[in-house]
Fold:
Amino acid sequence: MGSIITALELGKPIIILARDHRRGEHRNGHQIATLQQFRSFPGVFIADDEEHLISLLDRADSLAASPQLSSEAPEEFLQKLTDFIEKPVSPSRISQLRNRLSRRHGSA
Structure:
């Protein structure tokens, strides 16, 4: 994630190939899941396998960069985050959240 975000902040194209947990290259599939989220993102080029990686590297000079991302969060996001942090949570809302988590994790 750090390399992807840095490339986007710098407005540089990036080629990425996930380590595959099914081949014992990693402990789980989080890298593959991350790639799926970025698959259609401008400036991020996903190599599906080693051959595809070589193909992308062969044309690296012609890969288009993404528009440069700001390294700062948008003001609207910061305000929503501040509101969330500062807003007191009612006991009934806490109970709802606990119930939702319990159902998700299969406990009562």
